[in-house]
Amino acid sequence: MNTAKSLVLFSGGQDSTTCLAWALSRYHRVETIGFDYGQRHAIELSCRQTILTSIRQRFPQWGERLGDDHLINLQTLGQISDTALTRERAIAYSQHGLPNTFVPGRNILFLSFAAALAYRRGIDRLVAGMCQTDSSGYPDCRDDAIKALQVALNCGMASRFCIETPLMWLNKGDIWHLAQSLGGVDFLDLVRHETHTCYLGERREQHDWGWGCGTCPSCRLRADGYAAFLASP
Ligand code: ZN
Fold this sequence. Notes:
With 233 residues, this protein is of the alpha/beta class. The protein has a single domain (2-171), classed as 3-Layer(aba) Sandwich (Rossmann fold), CATH 3.40.50.620. It has 8 helices and 7 strands. The protein has helices spanning 14-24, 43-58, 60-63, 75-80, 106-121, 143-157, 172-194, 217-231, and strands spanning 2-9, 27-36, 66-73, 125-127, 162-164, 206-207, 210-211. The strands form 2 sheets. A 5-stranded parallel β-sheet has the order 3-2-1-4-5, with helices on both faces. A two-stranded antiparallel ribbon has the order 6-7. Strand 1 (2-9), helix 1 and strand 2 (27-36) form a beta-alpha-beta unit. The chain binds zinc ion. Zinc ion (ZN) binds next to helix 8.
């Protein structure tokens, strides 16, 4: 067991919940941080507490390592963003190929706030679910962007943070496999039934891969990944 402490960027979605299990399998102390930035799918935020409670109840070996949860108010980001995640508008693609679900600067802000909190709490490992493979082309999910940010944070805070991104080179099918390898079928079920991914915040219909509208880009990625996972046990 690694004696370092870690802080997981935890949104209540599939990826960050898998990252949380990854950290709980490695570190003796794990704290979580989430951000309320006026996202349309605020349902994610309510999933966070359900998931944390479930982990404590159903995975006691993880629960005893799970520390404080921090929810940060970043409504300012919603005010300055004009995207399909923060406004009632249809999901579309811009001329240069980025979907309008891209919130410029989001991951840079999230990791900066996480580092500021971690600094105060004596934590030097930041764990985040960015993924270059299935990132919808979001530039701030790319490995180079995260590594550059790690350097900038360490230079700017005279610190030695390590930003760990266990999903960076996985596809969505691999991420389901990772969840199962970390916590078995019980954890796979938790991810399927308690995490939220749908961009539209839809939770009326439950599929074998979880809740969602089934048609937005985020649901498609999740559903296709689950199908790929089932096809390659
Ligand atoms: Zn959806």
